[in-house]
Task: inverse folding
């Protein structure tokens, strides 16, 4: 097989400097077909995509995601929808009552498969020369996304991605040391604090190198975000769509 | 870029006929490094991997996942762990109190990023000539996985993957029609039942073609699984690890 794929994965970066250059239907179809072949839990295929090209709709999504202007600029936005509506039709056809959507397990399976799908969309797009940026910020107001995309009950717009050609590729941000990520046989806690402290310094050096004066150490940035529920309405909207977290 | 990547994504299949041939440390390191470069929500990097090579441990995981014997055969098993323990250390360093893990939003972000990671592991492995099969079945008894891998609080073993060289590549199962997957601008419900019915027939023809006599139509198979919470203890174990789904 090809090391081009490994290089593509290792060079992952989020791009935001999108050009107006359109994405052809042929390229988009290849990206979507590649994602469509990804696996899903028990082959339930509980994922759907909504492709938005309409500039007015993209401007609205940019607003929903707290003013991420690149959503308005990139010619294509794809929303990855966890879709237990489609499987509920399967249950109807088989004369059964679907209950999975009301459980933590159902939500977990749907969210993991949304992640696999998002990953495949990003890799396929980059393999075809496009730039991408994943957008969790649609969960900031998932109800507005549901209205805009006309999503049925038992679905949830989990995450999205901008696709387009880019002006200049973004820099690649350093990651936490691999020793905090890979564990062998069992999880090792002993050196984590030390590794995180080293990474905080490395990330600050990176911010300085690219001239970003508001960059924080990883621990401070993560702590700021995680001392709150930063997309506050995820639970409320998921519950109103039928995801009950009952057990 | 390379169409080899598109071909790889479009040829996705789950392999189960693993050979005893070992996976070298060099190949494994490349696979893990590729996954490590994937994006995470707000760059929180709330994912860890636990690599299991030990045959006794793999046999135990096969048992936990309801007797999936291929886990015992493939030389490497990787568990993708949602890890809010690591981020809680960041909060500690920054003198803040982490609350994200107690929310649906935190669980959603962690599960999506586990999916991106799983996808990257699968693609990188296949790019290097390995076969893979994703394993959600570790959630069948997530508590036993936590014990085996010595996972700390605020973590959850979301999904796993077998890696190894394979004897003969598996067949590729047909997917639901693309018209049930891709929607443009808004979600279209009108033709879903019709498309599902057509797919049920296509899948039955596939089962017959590969000589599998216990194969069910997609709708019946999905309905059977989803009329219950098929991994029953996901919620209970997640809650005991600190994922409260409070809001």
Result:
């Amino acid at each position: 097989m090809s090391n081009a794929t490994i290089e593509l994965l290792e060079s992952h970066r989020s791009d935001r400097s999108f050009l107006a250059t359109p994405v052809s239907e042929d390229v988009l179809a290849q990206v979507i077909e590649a994602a469509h072949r990804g696996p899903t839990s028990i082959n339930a295929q509980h994922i759907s995509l909504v492709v938005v090209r309409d500039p007015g709709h993209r401007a609205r999504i940019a607003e929903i995601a707290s003013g991420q202007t690149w959503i308005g600029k990139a010619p294509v936005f794809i929303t990855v929808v966890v879709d237990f509506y489609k499987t509920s039709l399967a249950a109807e056809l088989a004369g059964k009552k679907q209950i999975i959507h009301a459980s933590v397990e159902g939500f977990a399976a749907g969210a993991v498969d949304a992640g696999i799908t998002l990953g495949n969309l990003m890799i396929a797009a980059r393999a075809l020369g496009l730039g991408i940026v994943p957008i969790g910020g649609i969960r900031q107001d998932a109800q507005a996304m549901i209205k805009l995309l006309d999503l049925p009950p038992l679905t949830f717009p989990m995450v999205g991605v901008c696709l387009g050609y880019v002006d200049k590729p973004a820099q690649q941000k350093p990651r936490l040391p691999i020793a905090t990520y890979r564990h062998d046989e069992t999880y090792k806690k002993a050196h984590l604090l030390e590794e995180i402290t080293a990474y905080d310094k490395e990330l600050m050096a990176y911010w300085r190198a690219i001239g970003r004066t508001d960059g924080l150490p990883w621990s401070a940035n993560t702590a700021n975000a995680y001392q709150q529920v930063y997309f506050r309405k995820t639970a409320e909207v998921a519950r109103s769509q039928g995801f009950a977290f009952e057990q």
